[in-house]
Design a protein that fits this description.
about 80 residues, single chain
């Protein structure tokens, strides 16, 4: 359905063509490769959507509920 990569935000390489918003941050959608890229807390996230059944707006909605794996097992 999609590939997600996470790495340190490259210094001096801000996202310049921000045309969408992800989790309250500027993000860029690249139509050619069907991807969304944004920076969050020092990390750069890049999602490449696979297949025509995944639309940009659906992926944007799904990113809003993303949590760190380490946060899944925390007790209230």
């Amino acid at each position: 359905m999609f590939y997600l990569s996470i790495f340190h935000s490259p210094e001096g390489m801000e996202i310049e063509k921000a045309d969408v918003e992800i989790r309250g941050r500027k993000a860029a959608y690249e139509k050619v490769v069907n991807s969304i890229t944004w920076d969050e807390e020092g990390l750069r996230y890049s999602i490449i959507m696979i297949g025509s059944e995944v639309e940009k707006n659906e992926m944007i909605e799904r990113t809003e509920s993303m949590v760190l794996n380490s946060d899944l097992n925390k007790q209230p």
